[in-house]
Here is the input.
Amino acid sequence: MCQTTKDMSKKPINRIKAVLAEKGKTNNWLAAQLKKSVTTTSRWCSNKTQPSVENMIEVAKLLGVDVKDLLHTTKK
Here is the structure.
């Protein structure tokens, strides 16, 4: 079953915003690097939408991290 936007905001899927902060980068920087709109990357950072797997891989490369570092753990 798909999660609604409201459900996703309760349980964030990605950690893009946190990793950007750890690396001293901004959402605007990420948008420019990926040639995406700031609105798109902002929605990823707020977990309102999720990037494609391909975009997630590119984000990880730009930030010098493993893709799994951009995801919240599913283990409890």
